[in-house]
Design brief:
The chain has one helix and no strands. It is mainly α and 44 residues long. The longest helix has 11 residues. The N and C termini lie far apart (26 Å).
């Protein structure tokens, strides 16, 4: 497994996504497609 895959998995665990993972087919003004979550202070 590559380091970037490990990093992407860690971001996913924190309900985050890297800029490189955003679909470029979205409209110029993207709309939110997620649900809110509570982050732990240590992760912030």
């Amino acid at each position: 497994m590559s380091r970037i895959e490990d990093f992407n998995r860690k971001l996913d665990e924190l309900n985050l996504i890297g800029y490189w993972g955003i679909s470029r087919r979205e409209a110029f003004e993207p709309t939110s497609s997620f649900e809110p979550c509570m982050w732990r202070w240590d992760d912030v």
